[in-house]
Design goal:
The structure holds two protein chains of two kinds.
Chain A: E1 2-10, E2 32-36, H1 50-57, E3 61-66, H2 86-98, E4 102-103, E5 106-107, E6 110-113, E7 123-135, E8 142-151, E9 155-159, E10 163-167, E11 174-179, H3 187-203, E12 214-221, E13 227-233, H4 239-262, E14 273-274, H5 285-292, E15 296-302, E16 312-314, E17 317-318, H6 319-327, E18 336-337, H7 349-359, E19 366-372, H8 374-388, E20 396-400, E21 406-411, E22 418-420, E23 427-428, H9 431-435, H10 443-453, H11 456-464, H12 468-476, H13 481-497, H14 505-517, H15 526-534, H16 539-545, H17 553-562, H18 567-574, H19 580-588
Parallel strand pairs in A: 3-10, 13-20
Antiparallel strand pairs in A: 1-11, 1-12, 2-3, 4-7, 5-23, 6-7, 6-22, 7-8, 8-11, 9-10, 12-13, 14-15, 15-19, 16-17, 18-19, 20-21
Helix pairs in contact in A: 3-4, 6-8, 10-11
Chain B: H1 4-9, E1 19-24, E2 27-33, E3 45-48, E4 54-57, E5 61-66, E6 86-90, E7 97-100, E8 105-108, H2 112-118, E9 127-131, H3 142-157, E10 162-166, H4 172-182, E11 183-184, E12 190-193, H5 206-217, E13 224-229, E14 237-241, E15 245-247, E16 256-258, E17 265-268, E18 273-276, E19 289-290, E20 298-302, H6 309-313, E21 320-325, H7 345-353, E22 358-362, H8 375-383, H9 394-407, H10 411-418
Parallel strand pairs in B: 6-9, 6-10, 10-12, 12-13, 20-21, 21-22
Antiparallel strand pairs in B: 1-2, 1-5, 2-3, 3-4, 7-8, 11-19, 13-14, 14-17, 15-16, 17-18
Helix pairs in contact in B: 3-4, 4-9
The chains are: A alpha+beta, B alpha/beta.
């Protein structure tokens, strides 16, 4: 098995070709919605790229939601792009240097044809900034042949056969793309490599954080199987499962193919039958609702396919699912096949046997059933048959699902068609530019530094933490490293389990630790203070309202005295307000004679 | 062009398009040599890598691996001799162009075959096409107006049902105004069309504009018009009168606006929508009147604070001057006789007295010239400045003066022609809704 990974990381700068902020509009309503269509562009011979022609032929309408806070005329394709964002380029170069790659002499912005509407221009702008890097790993060196900088695409809102809706707030956010060589050995190794690259990215302190800001595409090819690209894995922990499931899928598909060949079951002839009349008065909701809307029920005999369609190839996914995924290209919801229990759809025994008779089925045969408008249903069965008759495992781009399985998206795209972005001049990377780049600490240096401040275990957690930058900021301001690390890695985690989330971790902690430094409250009160602040209150208000101010001096002495100089008693009652060290000091202090009156 | 150093490294038989091995900073690269884009560092070699990306590198040595295959011959730049139907005339611009993926170069694409490939939906109409010239519109002059007017006249006389002119957008409104004056009493529509997004992008609005233009050229209209996007959406186009239209945005699709009037039509070929928004002249066969003489020796001068009397005096080499004044049509004339003011009334008066007509338009773009309100205007009128009451755009006024000077040398006659509405460049009423 060969595994390679492509990592896409958003940068924390303004957009790549305009001065819009790179923030998502979250729940905001779009300010305006615009409608566009895309069409093919002709090559020098006056001929259109076949792939794009097919896609464009669909004549889809694209609706774009525009957010004034994050969009300008550049994203709406109404103004030429500005020059390449120099700050973003410098971050990409900083990352490249950390990955021991060599910057190119001149950055050339390219247009990569994108025909699904996710870019208003019909292409994505992308450029190579460095090449030939490498990183070490426990199982040998991994090459980084390419480091590119590119625009993020628009986010999909909804899609149907005739139109797709996108939101433009995300379009144009700078991404750094890091590609590895296919030298990764297995799932665990994949996690190690992805984690290491992720850490290197975060050590720059200039990448975006939060959900969706980093995405992994995994390329897997197995012997006897095919090359498959699994897109959009967000959770590193799922990568081994993803690899395992893909390996299993390909293995099972090879077995199914061998079995079908030995049964002489393929190729299957296209023998679509209109069986609507059988289901004229059916109680099966899945069919009757369609029939009411004027749909037809079409069926196709799958000779000698019995038991194959129901064969599991991934957890919860069968060979029938593979065919169904292809059928969906026609815009249907899927297919029903004979290896499924018909009763779950409410199709009666009588209906099923009438169908089998109509199709002239023998004991070893199976069938597929589709309900849709006739032409659409015909196309759906056509696509499913196209898949069923493939003589090898197809090369595919699949979507990585959160449960570690994957879903067919499209055949793997051929070599991307790239041509120069003539609106943006090339940018020379000269000595002056390279000198202006802060290379920053290397991952190794940073690790060493952390190990001096923290114990080894905590240092290991902090370097992987998405809050690494907050840790660095707070400790630089003089906060106790162990306390900051524990707050970030333990307190915040247990608060999250209680359902308490922080919108702005960094600013909350900066405010809290500044107050803590003044001695306004004790260490034990930190979780309670944070709970109060999570609701949006300022730290002073939280201390006052929840009575968390630290008790010191005479007041503390009085309390200690009232508790009979018993440490346990004091701490039981005043754990959140009294500093144990101060209490201990009072208890130890020689008592004045009056104490004994 | 590459530097001498690179040129020296490229052996005699190695050049753009060839596959090479390049050594740069200790690393070996393989790829195809690309042409050097304009500007930038000519000592950097641009190669296309096998993954499709271009990069620039500083070469230490270049070794030829493979010569590029010979370029297939381009299809001939043909011309169709077809009578009737709709004529598509090419003047340049990027409404129809094709891209050479290897280099990224964009070429105009206007052979009939290419047009039909680029816009398959054209098959709905009986069209024929030919190239008149191929220029960026900012490079065009009265010489090209004449070539185009001759071609349009020829097409109409040979029975074309309508004419579509593919034109760059920058000076499209000048050319449209010129055709409006040169070709009067049109029996068929003459529709200008262009694209704000070049045709090398899948998002170019060229296709919709083109098809709507051809559709419009098949309709009942006897005027010169401009067909461009009505909104930022790819939904419908506006058809604007050739003398009233103006490009009002540098880059947006909906840059073209009708000034001081509604667009003539809202157009959508997909739904056969040809909805009248204003009155227009219909097709009629009373005979095309061609008055194609133009005088290109006319200056268009934008008035501004600090404008120097000396600058105006130097305009005496021109045969006519159009001023783009401020507000109602003003330029500094020192009406209050202030010693710190340097007006230009004296040199203007000298120009007019020497027989050079001076015409007024306004920087406000919208609204009427009114020289009777302030003393400045009255001084200008008294000096003989033409234009009181006109609501022409500066461009329409300019083209009209070029045309009027082409028709006669008599200054009285020129003034009369200027103040007569010829092609809708001057309206009689300013409606409230039209701003």
């Amino acid at each position: 098995m060969k595994i390679g990974i492509e990592i896409h990381q958003r940068l924390d700068t303004t957009k790549l070709f305009c001065d819009c902020r790179s923030a998502l509009a979250d729940d905001a309503k779009p300010d305006v919605s615009i409608q566009r269509r895309l069409h093919p562009v002709f090559s020098e011979l006056g001929e259109v790229d076949q792939a794009s022609q097919t896609e464009f032929a669909k004549g889809k309408l694209f609706k774009y939601q525009v957010f004034n806070s994050s969009n300008c005329l550049v994203e709406t394709d109404e103004e030429p792009p500005k020059t390449l964002n120099l700050e973003a380029l410098k971050i990409a170069l900083q990352i490249a240097i950390q990955l021991r790659a060599s910057p190119v002499g001149e950055v050339h912005i390219m247009r990569k044809m994108v025909i699904d509407g996710s870019n208003t221009a019909g292409f994505q702008r992308t450029a190579v900034v460095a090449m030939n890097g490498h990183i070490g790993s426990s199982k040998g060196g991994i090459g980084i042949p390419l480091i590119a900088i590119e625009e993020e695409s628009a986010g999909i809102v909804s899609a149907s056969d005739s139109e797709a809706v996108y939101r433009l707030d995300r379009l144009g956010i700078p991404l750094v793309e890091i590609t590895t060589t296919p030298d990764i050995k297995d799932g665990a190794h994949l996690v190690e490599v992805a984690e290491k690259i992720g850490m290197i990215l975060r050590t720059t302190g200039k990448v975006a954080r939060g959900i969706g800001t980093i995405r992994q595409d995994v390329n897997i090819s197995t012997e006897g199987g095919a090359r498959v690209e699994l897109k959009g894995a967000q959770d590193l922990k799922m990568l081994p499962k993803l690899v395992e499931n893909e390996e299993k899928r390909q293995l099972e598909l090879v077995k199914i193919l061998t079995e079908l060949r030995s049964r002489k079951a393929i190729p299957v002839k296209n023998q679509i039958a209109d069986v609507t009349s059988i289901f004229q008065s059916t109680k099966a909701a899945i069919l009757s609702s369609g029939l009411k809307a004027g749909a037809s029920v079409l069926a196709q005999k799958m000779p000698a396919h019995k038991g194959m369609l129901g064969r599991e190839i991934q957890p919860g996914k069968r060979y029938g699912t593979e065919l169904s995924d292809y059928a969906k290209k026609a815009g249907v919801k899927g297919i029903i096949h004979s290896d499924e229990g018909m009763e779950k759809y409410g199709i009666t025994k009588e209906e099923e046997s009438a169908l089998r008779k109509e199709l002239g089925m023998d004991g070893d045969d199976a069938f597929m059933l589709v309900v849709a408008q006739k032409a659409q249903a015909e196309a759906a069965i056509g696509y499913a048959l196209e898949r069923a008759n493939m003589d090898s495992i197809p090369e595919e781009t699949r979507r990585a699902n959160p449960d570690g399985t994957s879903t067919f998206m499209r055949p793997i795209s051929g070599k991307a068609r790239l041509y120069p972005e003539t609106d943006v001049p090339p940018l020379t990377i000269d000595e002056e530019l390279l000198d202006s780049i802060e290379t920053g600490e290397s991952l190794e240096d940073k690790k060493k530094k952390l190990e001096k401040m923290l114990n080894k275990e905590m240092a290991g957690r902090i370097i992987k933490s998405r809050h690494l930058h907050v840790f660095e900021k707070l400790t630089a301001a003089g906060a106790d490293p162990m306390l900051v690390a524990a707050t970030l890695e333990d307190t915040l985690v247990s608060l999250r389990r209680e359902g308490i989330e922080f919108k702005e971790v960094e600013s909350t902690l900066v405010e809290m630790f500044a107050e803590y430094k003044k001695g306004s409250f004790v260490k034990a009160a930190i979780p309670e203070v944070l709970k109060g602040m999570a609701k949006g209150a300022r730290v002073e208000a939280v201390l006052k309202v929840f009575r968390l101010q630290k008790i010191t001096g005479d007041a503390l002495e009085k309390i200690v005295s009232e508790c009979g100089y018993d440490m346990t008693k004091v701490m039981q009652k005043y754990r959140l307000q009294a500093d144990p060290a101060e209490v201990a000091a009072i208890i130890k202090k020689p008592k004045t004679s009056s104490d004994y009156v | 062009m590459y530097s001498k150093k690179i040129a020296a490294m490229l052996k005699k038989n190695t050049g753009v398009g060839d596959r090479v091995k390049v050594l740069s900073a200790g690393t070996e690269f393989q790829g195809t040599i690309m042409p050097r884009p304009l500007g930038g560092d000519s000592s950097i070699l641009v190669i296309k890598l096998d993954n499709g990306y271009n990069i620039g590198i500083r070469p230490e040595s270049i070794e030829l691996l493979e010569k590029s295959p010979p370029k297939p011959a381009l299809p001939p730049n043909g011309e169709e001799k077809v009578k009737g139907g709709i004529a598509i005339l090419g003047c340049g611009g990027t409404i129809a162009s094709k891209i050479e993926y290897k280099t990224g170069a964009v070429y105009p694409s206007i052979t009939p075959r290419e047009l039909r490939l680029a816009f398959p939906a054209l098959k709905r109409w009986n069209v024929h096409s030919r190239r008149i010239f191929s220029l960026l519109s900012e490079d065009m002059s009265a010489y090209h107006w004449r070539l185009l007017a001759d071609a349009i006249e020829e097409e109409i006389k040979s029975g074309s049902e309508g004419v579509v002119v593919m034109h760059g957008t920058d000076t499209m409104t000048y050319t449209a105004a010129a055709m409006s004056f040169m070709l009067q009493n049109l029996p068929a529509p003459v529709v200008f069309v262009g694209a704000q997004r070049s045709a090398d992008r899948p998002s170019s609005e060229n296709e919709m504009n083109m098809l709507n233009a051809v559709f419009s050229a098949s309709q009942n209209l006897g005027e010169v018009a401009v067909c461009m996007h009505a909104t930022t959406n790819d939904d419908y186009c506006h058809l604007h009168r050739g003398t009233r239209v103006r490009k009002m945005h540098t880059s947006r699709r909906d840059a073209f606006h009708s000034i001081g009037s509604q667009p003539l039509f809202a157009v959508d070929y997909r739904t056969d929508r040809f909805e009248a928004l204003a009155e227009c002249r219909k097709r009629n066969d009373s005979g095309l009147v061609a008055k194609k003489e133009m005088n290109d020796n006319v200056a268009l001068i934008y008035a501004h604070p600090n404008i120097k009397p000396k600058f105006i005096s130097k305009l005496d080499d021109y045969d006519g001057v159009v001023l783009v004044g401020t507000g109602l049509g003003h330029v500094p004339v020192n009406a209050f006789d202030d010693k710190n003011v340097h007006g230009i009334i004296k040199p203007l008066r000298e120009l007019i007295d020497s027989g050079i007509p001076v015409v007024m338009s306004s920087q406000c773009i919208s609204g009427r010239i009114c020289l009777r309100i302030y003393s400045t205007g009255r001084l200008l009128m008294d000096a003989g400045v033409i234009g009181d009451g006109a609501d022409w755009t500066p461009e329409a006024a300019y083209v009209k003066l070029c045309w009027a000077l082409g028709q006669t040398k008599d200054t009285k006659e020129i003034e009369k022609l200027m103040m007569t509405d010829i092609a809708g460049e001057m309206t009689r009423r300013s409606a409230l809704g039209e701003f």
